[in-house]
Structure formats: structure tokens, C-alpha cells
Write a structure and sequence with these properties.
With 440 residues, the chain is of the alpha/beta class. It is built from twelve helices and nine strands. Helix content is 36%, strand content 11%. The chain has a nine-stranded mixed β-sheet, sandwiched between helices. The longest helix has 33 residues. The two termini are 31 Å apart.
Length: 440
């Protein structure tokens, strides 16, 4: 996508776009990543910072978020500390974009700029869904059944048998698994039951569709789009983005340029996949220097070597830490005001029955890092503490995980997501800097 300057500043970052299959999108027939690799290998770059947005991020939203996050990072007083800690400090800032808004805008204007568009009008809704979910007969057919039923009754007491089967067929066509808490991030849920999903959405007024109204008979479609975006996050992280990280490590090996990763929401899946590689078992050239998973919408157990539930095994990303892929601290944030992770995440993962809690641990089987942090690692690796003011000292140690209870600072926001995106404050930026500075 090229370089982007944050309005009102002289701070510039590179923006790379990937498609839903994890392939970098070409710009004028070339890959922008090649230019960034050239810069990193030939210019005196001391630190590379990667950022990944989460769910509901089309290109305009990605730029808005990166302007805000990177702007806060570079406005921090910690920049002066970095200039002292890293001789000749010169950062390279990179925003990673992946199409995570089911009905968002991914096109660029002729000048390379992006303008937000509104959600689809009713006449466009069917074709937009087909396009975003994949225009194949096995997807178009079930959607036709669901839309035809909606014409006759948008809010039936129960789903018609034909609609229930259409949702099951669509779930299969999208390749969405239901493997429980040890499964990959796009399958760590209980079995998909369209009727239970429909009834739960009607009762809780949960809308997984973002700006598109997926209420009534369309409610299970919103849940399927939610899991489709989780699958896409893993696909792009384990695919092209993981490859780009390794290329960058090779290109900067002689200079030992430090590399720092930050992800938000489903972007924590992207970043974890970036570290883990294909099937969470791909090697890296060398460890990265720090990681920040901010309000993560990924399982609290996904890094655990042994999940404390009957017949459970290790978490999907359990090899990342023991394989030494992170040499510095790994920092996570939690907020009780984050409704997206605190309420919608467990609802999407565990529809029926009451939540299960690990004996003696007090943590649920299905829950997100943004609510509970990374759990199951043991006290010698994992520390649960509070986010500090923007001038506080964390004293982060290498190869340890720090779960920061951040409700005091991540607390603003309304609607169904609450404070999920309130992450551009100076305190969050300071925590990211403290993790990066630990590698000095």
C-alpha cells in the first residue's frame, strides 16, 4: 500500500495489505514488502515495529487505527528513552492490513487513498455476502435459502428446518471446525448449532455483524462471519506475514535489528500466527524482541502447555514460548469494560449450558486474553499485575509473560464492544515501549 504519514505529524509508517488467503496484494505489479526489506537491510534501522488490527477492519478503519496507535507511540516521552537506549535510534513502523470486516471496503482510489464507505444497502446485501464469504455454489446455495426465508419471516419463533440445514451446510462450506479449547483459534468452540445460536442472539441482542444488521434470521450468519474472520486471521498470520517476518530477520541479521510485534483483538491471532508459522510449528530465523497482545480475542489457554480441563491437551500456540521465539517480554492487556471480549467472545464460543471453570484456577474454559490474560504457564513464566501510569516502571524481564489488568485506562466506549478499541492512550503506548526497551 506504500507509506502513510500520520496527519499533523511527520511520522510515517509502511502499510502492507494481504488478501484473505494470506498473499500480499501487489501494487503496480510489485510487492511493497520488497521495498521495506531493502530499507531495513541497507539503511541504519535499529528497531522494526509491526502492528496488526483486529476484526471489523477494512482499509479505512486500518489506517484510522494505525494513525491513532502509532501516533500515540511516537508522541510518548519514551521516544527520548529509546534514543538513549538504542544508539542511532531509527525505527521502521509497519502496519499489516488484512480484510477483517466482512462487508468492508478494500479498494483504493487512483491516488492510493482510501475512503470509508457505508455498509451495503438491502439490495446489495446478498451479493456482498456471497462475495465476502466466497462465491462458490456451496456458499451461494445456502445463502439463497436463508434470504428466501427472510422474505417471508425475519424473526420466526424457531428456525425453519431448511434454514437450519442451510446454516449447517454453510458452516461446512466455510471449513469452520469445532474442536474445543485445544483447537486452532478458528475452531476453539463447541459444535455449531444454528438454532441455539439464533435463540442466544435473540435473547442477548448480540450482533456479530458490525455495521451490517444481522438480526433475526440472519443472526447465525453473523456468528459464522465472526469465525470466518478468526480463520482468516490465522491464515494470513501463518502464511504471508510469517514469511515476511522471516525475510526481514534474514535481511537484518548482520545488524541485529530489533523486532517488536503488537496486535489488537483478532490481530493477536495474526501476531501469534506470525510467530508460530504454519500449524503453529514453523521455525523463525531468530527470536523477536518483544510482543504486545492488546485486548486479545483469542483463547486464554492458547499458549498453555497443558490446559486444566479433563481430556484437554496443550493450547494451539503452546510451542511459541518454549521454542524461544520471543526473547523479551510478552505483554497482554485486560479490561472489564471490554464487552467484545468479555461478553461476545464467550457467547460465540460456548452457546449452550453454563460456563465450565478449571478446578482451583478460577478461569473459564472459553474466554479471551483481553479478559483473563494468558493463563496456564506457571508462576515462573507468568505474572499478573496492573497497567501503570505513563511514567511507571515495569521492570519487564526477558522471556516472561505479563498480564496487565488495564481497566483503569482501557475504559471508554459504548455499544456492544464497550472499551474494546480504547487502546490509544499514553499508558498503553508506555507499556509497549517498556516491553521494547527491555531488549536494549
Amino acid at each position: 500500500m506504500g507509506y502513510h504519514t500520520i496527519p499533523g505529524t511527520d511520522h510515517t509508517y509502511g502499510l502492507i495489505a494481504y488478501d484473505g488467503d494470506g498473499n500480499e496484494r501487489l501494487e503496480a505489479g510489485t510487492k511493497f514488502s520488497h521495498e521495506l526489506l531493502e530499507v531495513a537491510s541497507t539503511e541504519p534501522i535499529t528497531n522494526v515495529f509491526f502492528f496488526s488490527h483486529g476484526w471489523k477492519g477494512d482499509l479505512p478503519a486500518a489506517i484510522e487505527q494505525y494513525d491513532s496507535w502509532i501516533g500515540a507511540l511516537m508522541a510518548s516521552s519514551d521516544v527520548a528513552r529509546a534514543e538513549s537506549a538504542f544508539p542511532g535510534f531509527r525505527p521502521l513502523l509497519i502496519g499489516l492490513h488484512w480484510p477483517s470486516l466482512p462487508w468492508g471496503r478494500e479498494d483504493a482510489g487512483s491516488d492510493g487513498s482510501f475512503v470509508a464507505s457505508s455498509g451495503p444497502v438491502p439490495g446489495q446485501m446478498f451479493e456482498d455476502m456471497v462475495e465476502k464469504l466466497g462465491d462458490r455454489p456451496e456458499i451461494r446455495g445456502p445463502l439463497e435459502t436463508i434470504f428466501e426465508a427472510a422474505r417471508h419471516d425475519m424473526s420466526p419463533d424457531t428456525l425453519p428446518d431448511s434454514v437450519r440445514q442451510a446454516y449447517l451446510d454453510l458452516n461446512d462450506a466455510l471449513g469452520l471446525g469445532s474442536g474445543g479449547v485445544t483447537a486452532p483459534p478458528d475452531a476453539d468452540r463447541e459444535g455449531f448449532d444454528p438454532e441455539e445460536s439464533y435463540q442466544a442472539a435473540m435473547e442477548d441482542s448480540a450482533n456479530f455483524g458490525g455495521s451490517v444488521d444481522l438480526s433475526g434470521i440472519f443472526a447465525p450468519l453473523g456468528q459464522l462471519s465472526y469465525w470466518t474472520m478468526k480463520k482468516r486471521a490465522r491464515t494470513v498470520g501463518e502464511g504471508g506475514i510469517h514469511s515476511f517476518l522471516k525475510d526481514l530477520q534474514n535481511a537484518t541479521a548482520a545488524r541485529r535489528t530489533r523486532i517488536h510485534l503488537m496486535g489488537h483483538s483478532f490481530g493477536t491471532i495474526v501476531i501469534s500466527g506470525m510467530l508460530g508459522g504454519p500449524n503453529a510449528s514453523g521455525p523463525l530465523v531468530r527470536p523477536v524482541d518483544s510482543v504486545a497482545l492488546v485486548q486479545g480475542a483469542v483463547s486464554l489457554w492458547c499458549y498453555a502447555p497443558s490446559i486444566p480441563f479433563r481430556n484437554a491437551g496443550p493450547g494451539y500456540f503452546h510451542r511459541i514460548l518454549p521454542d524461544g521465539k520471543v526473547s523479551g517480554p510478552l505483554v497482554t492487556t485486560q479490561s472489564r469494560y471490554d464487552k467484545a471480549v468479555g461478553q461476545l467472545y464467550p457467547l460465540a464460543s460456548h452457546i449452550h449450558g453454563s460456563a465450565s471453570f478449571a478446578v482451583g484456577a478460577g478461569f473459564p474454559e472459553f474466554g479471551g486474553i483481553g479478559s483473563y490474560g494468558i493463563q496456564g504457564l506457571g508462576g515462573e513464566v507468568q505474572t499478573d499485575t496492573k497497567m501503570l501510569p505513563a511514567d511507571g516502571s515495569y521492570r519487564f524481564e526477558p522471556r516472561k509473560v505479563y498480564n496487565l489488568e488495564s481497566s483503569q485506562y482501557i475504559c471508554k466506549g459504548g455499544g456492544t464492544s464497550g472499551a474494546h478499541s480504547d487502546i490509544a492512550g499514553p499508558e498503553v503506548a508506555h507499556a509497549i515501549w517498556e516491553a521494547a526497551l527491555a531488549s536494549a
